[in-house]
Fold each of these.
Amino acid sequence: MEYEGLNEARELIESSSNVVFLTGAGMSAESGVPTFRGKDGLWKKFKAEELATPEAFQSDPKTVWEWYDSRRAKLRTVRPNAGHYSIAKFGLRKDVNIVTQNVDGLHKKAGSKDIHELHGNIWTVKCTRCSKKSENYDVPIKILPKCECGGLLRPGVVWFGESLNQKILSRSSEALSKANLTVVVGTSGLVQPAASLAMIAKSNGSKVIEINLNKTPNYGLIDLFLIGKAAEILPQMLSE
Ligand code: OAD
């Protein structure tokens, strides 16, 4: 399928030396990872305040861990899609950074480098007592998992009401300040501060392309909008 705006996008891509991809759940949709909003989104079936807040974990860590365990079980079965792979391949010939809200680790699995995971990674755990972070790929995970210090482990992701990791945020902002081109892929643009990053890129002089199934709140600031699936558009847009 020939997408409207594809040739213009390819020209922008080829004339840019430094590109940032700002990705959200739509990036992994074709891998079979559910998005959060939209008709089949996770937040249609589950209540974020009962599963993805520090208060929810404090009052009912078992329910929260069971939900993360079920998501980890699902993620264990999925693979990066053609969109993830095309970004990884593109990173071999241009200076590429990926700033993602996804916790699924699929950009890394596809072979990309310089990935900034704003909302953490579902394959990490963090101790609620000593704050030590570690990787954990157990599926199913032992509920309730404990740190060697005896403290309760929690998922190593950022929940509603929590601040983003400042180092990751500042590395993301630095990458965006250098970008000639920012490609916003598959995010509803509703969750802050991630949602402001496209605006920051634009005000730093970057061109902005967006790929999504629908228009988003970014629409007013972008230079070029491509409507369609990330896993189909990205490989065509990024091929040499
Ligand atoms: P959302 O679920 O809010 O939005 C997904 C976006 O992807 C929507 O704009 C869809 O139109 C678009 N989309 C769906 N399928 C697509 C496809 N195949 N190709 C291109 N676009 C597609 O996901 P995010 O914006 O990533 O945070 O959500 C942001 C944060 O909200 C998440 O990181 C998570 C969630 O609550 C936390 O849990 C802290």
Amino acid sequence: MIKENKKTVFSGVQPSGDLHLGNYLGAILQWAEMQDKYSCIFCVVDYHAITVRQDPAVLRDRIIETAKMYLAAGINPEKSVIFQQSDVSAHAELAWILNCSARIADLNKMTQFKEKAGKNQETVTVGLYDYPVLMAADILLYNTDAVPVGEDQIQHVELCRDLAQRFNRQFGETFKIPELVIKEEAARIMGLDDPAKKMSKSAASPANYIALADKPEEAAKKIIKAVTDSGKEIIFNKDNKPAISNLLTIYSLLSDESIKDLEKRYRGRGYGEFKEDLAEVVKEFLTDFQERLYKIKDSDVKDILRAGAEKVRPIAEETLSRVKERVGIK
Ligand code: TYM
């Protein structure tokens, strides 16, 4: 399973809200595509989720749901490892050690923290502030070569690289420096209600996103109601037509038809017709996805997560042990 000679991919999603098309197209779909070429490790990052308040019973369910989404999206546990972050305690331990070389100035630059904390910078948790360091620990524990993520995580992966390089300089060669992998066209799926903001689990209105668990009929309605731009041409132009460009992106990624072909097909036709067709595409995608999703049993997921943690724990422990030696606590 941890394939010799293959480069290692690591990525994760927080089980903290409704997983949506942005998570799927920006991250999980590319994970599925990478499985044959790489040795892949996909994590349900529950320690990240508790950086904001969670209802314990809901969180417990969401951890299982998130792993099911990975499976329904085509992550194959025979090829890739799926595990729950808190099942491998080395994540928290390495995060602590990295905390002791990460600087306040590093974290003060993180735009996602600033956005999430907003005006509440003094009252949000220390965990939320520190979350990029935990993310760095996740990645570095597995000698990761490549980290496929959406655009909002670029800064965090860059911080991870900086922390690893700094540690290597201070204590000697310890960590492999991971590369960022971005699927450009899918890296920033925007909100359906506001194409100036990204599609987000924590959006104020469910009209912002298509959740992977939305009823297909309801999702279709969200597409019909999605904000459009002025004019009526269906052309891709992020600056002048952000809403239509976003819908074209979603259409193209779900149907495997190029944006150029879609533009040609809808030349001279209005937004109404275009949205009707996209609504159908989304409905079909969700119907198929959910057919797979609802077949997966909780007990099977628990087995997969347990087996996944067992497989990766030795790698994580070996890295942690090397790090402890380097800093002089072992
Ligand atoms: P999270 O849970 O916020 O998002 C999971 C993945 O989905 C991508 N994404 C998007 N992509 C395109 N368009 C969007 N609108 C959109 N919204 C979200 C995110 O970029 C991400 O790839 N900190 C991470 C999870 C994490 C992690 C890691 C990732 C923890 N440790 C180690 C990689 C490696 C997070 O909160 O992602």
Amino acid sequence: MSKFKKGLEGIIALETEISYIDGEKGILEYRGHRIEKLAELSYEEVVHLLLYDKLPNTEELNEFFNKTKVIRELDVRTKEVIHYHNFNIEAMDALMTALAHISQGDPDLNVNTPEANIRKALRLIAKAPTIVAYYQRIHEGKEIVKPNELLPHCSNFLYMLRGEVPTKLESKILDLDFILSTEHELNASTFAVRVTASTLSDIHSAVISGIGTLKGVLHGGARLAVMNMLDEIGSPKKTEEYIMNMINTKQRIMGFGHRVYRVVDPRANIFRDLAKKIAEEKKDMKWYDMATKIEEVVTRELVEKQGKPIYMNVDFYSGVIYKYLEIPPKLATAIFALGRITGWLAHAMEQYSDNRLIRPRAKYIGEHHSQDKEISKLTKD
Ligand code: ACO
């Protein structure tokens, strides 16, 4: 048996053509394209690239948009399910339940052909934002806002959430948020998706596995933790003391550290620039100033003094951006999932296309009761 590595660190578990990471140089590519270049595109273009392995021309992009914009609405029964949700939960839990419900009505549920999986993928990508927006509107006691077919994917989500068409900068920021969140090789949730797909379970189940895994605070849940931390600190003046206390008491600073990157996560740099832009547009530097202070203290104390590669990751400035977009904290991880869903779907389809059951081994470290005296005693008694 091969050597045991806790947390599967550094283990190559499978081959992929979807994304590439160089953790030493801070490089991330989707299907061979650098993330910094992809950040100039729309989310729809990146979805096309991930699902069809091709950047779309104008005609293909229009066709893709026309196909997805008309399937955003939810069926009546799924809306009812959302009404019955417990509103003390995170939107992630609501997303999981509603997608499980949607799967029951999907005409292709148990058809696993590539064509059926693409149809299901488009439905999942189109409908997931509507679930999160409706959940929030109902939770706030407001009327739901139906999808607007004139708006692109991300602007439409903000529109359904707030009932107002977002500004150009807000739309661009959410597009970027979805692009940067959508794919990241074999992260924990994508691995969960691939394990589920490898049993030849359906693609809805694979995505639901991903949602459950993304929710944890060591993964996508860190974005919510960053927002909570900013709220708790409250002002730029209190930041140094708060972070120093966390470091001195050996607590983890959320939005920092990564299993793969030994330098700054390239997505985090793009998010930092964006956070600055939106702070300037809103003429409110508070959250941005707090974030740069946190970054300064963590770099000084953990990187420079302790020599640990604990740099900001994708969740740090995205949490800051959500503060400026006034995203309710309970929605933070679900919005990450709305972006990540495309990467999950691409991976599930790649898994189906050349499948072998994913079933690693565990090293047994318990005792061997070879005499089984205890069992003999029990059966005699
Ligand atoms: N703050 C302070 N110390 C940290 C942090 C952090 N955020 N992250 C790691 N460390 C320290 C650990 O305490 C440990 O120190 P030690 O060797 O003195 O005990 C060392 O760095 C290595 O930590 P591990 O937990 O072994 O690193 P691992 O690769 O398993 O963890 C992880 C990666 C989970 C992301 C970790 O860095 C972490 O907990 N970060 C905070 C949560 C977070 O931001 N998650 C989002 C990641 S990005 C994403 O999933 C979308």
Amino acid sequence: MPFAVRIVSTSVEKEVVGVREAEAAPRSGPAHYIGGRFDREGTTFPLVNPVDGTVVGAVPEAGAGTVDRAVRAARDAVTGDWGRSTAEERGALLRRIADGIEDRFDEFVAAEVADTGKPVSLASTVDIPRAAANFRAYADLVWGRPERSFTSPTPDGAGALNYTVRRPLGVVAVVAPWNLPLLLLTWKVAPALAAGNAVVAKPSELTPSTATLLAEVMDTVGVPPGVFNLVHGFGEGSAGAMLTGHPGVDAVAFTGESATGTAIMRSVAERLAPVSFELGGKNPALVFADADFDAAVDGTVRSAFTNAGQVCLCTERVYVERAIFDDFVAALAERARALRVGRPEQDGTDMGPLVSAEHRDKVLDYYRLAEREGAKTHAGGAAPRFGDERDRGFFVEPTVLTGLAPDARAVREEIFGPVCHVAPFDDEVEAVRLANDSKYGLAATVWTSSLSRAHRVAPQLEAGIVWVNCWNLRDLRTPFGGVKASGIGREGGEHSLDFFSEPVNVCVKL
Ligand code: NAD
């Protein structure tokens, strides 16, 4: 059946499929979604509430057979009607997916909050709206995409016409992390589908719920069977590695740790599959004495502590011009101490728990390591005590450190928690040198009121994204990605569409 027909006949199809689909619907928890069917095949692992550490559900773990079924379903889709679909048809479908997310907005928010512990205020203003926006953005971008053509001279004088058509890559694996689960998954799924690929997605084992809701939306709005498939599980030795290593996967789009990127690259090396990698960061902020002081403090509080520091773009290294260093540290520490750490659903909560016990332990280990390395702790530095069930949850305090040497591990390694280290600099040259002294290069922030300094410094910073007097302002059309160990390739706008399709040059002799 042509997919366009299915878009408008969803309700009829539901009636025909009837009871069986209703029984299989995953409303009681995470499920795989393969070839248009939900299932929970495989052993399960527990889903844990980060607020109090209780087990709240079970997640099926896909084995090799399940992953193989998903890849085959995707292959069938991409070699069938979906592979012949037009950009206009796919754009219409993407808009329906965006509508479908918005129709179930509250469910998506609740699921994201339950899995991650992030404040409702964040999930409802960033994560879920952005997920819908990702589909809308690529519906527009794929439709409005210009291609170039050239008329070339030929020896006989008749000439030739060259033009480019774009072909989807085929079956694309999308592997996502837990920090912005739906936002980052859809950031890849939307352009992959817009370009005409079929997708097998694997969300993080810690945050399977919104991906499952997304599969429900795909099912409801009439995404043809096999175009979007979902498998759950872990990384190494589990669904993640089985998927990226599957010979039927034509390309891998991955967001996560740099070390995982290395492992995935090894797994695709044999078959030379293209990769798009968004990896870790240890992002610097440079605060010059001529900056608007309050704006710089405010922006650094946001950039260090949003989502409990669990955003790849978060600032973990702050360099402040010496003339304002002491005042800046005092103001930042005061603001960090004032952040309200607590239940995600409570009004006014600034920071929820970290995502897991393992991650909480890792972050607290870094707090202790920093102290051993000679840090002075100006705010935080430990796990808060609430005197209730939250003490079994995964909370840590927002933390401000100073006094570490440039080669301290806490300055060099990504912690991915609500913590930043502040160090002084004396001039612009030193500021740029310190900022670039990292194996990572994802984002950097510059606070200055000097226009010429901003333009002078920004291009010297080894980062894929440089913000001046702001942080995390994102226009979805702009390139997004990192240099050095922070990534390979760029996403965003036409960059994603470039990755998810192959240009084919057609040369016609006139
Ligand atoms: P992670 O690398 O541990 O896991 C990410 C995903 O990869 C998960 O779905 C996991 O199951 C899977 N995975 C793990 N090992 C695998 C393997 N060998 N083969 C295939 N899949 C595998 O990362 P995380 O802890 O979920 O996320 C935090 C990390 O992500 C941080 O380093 C952060 O900086 C980074 N991140 C980067 C960006 C960016 O845009 N650059 C955005 C968000 C997060």
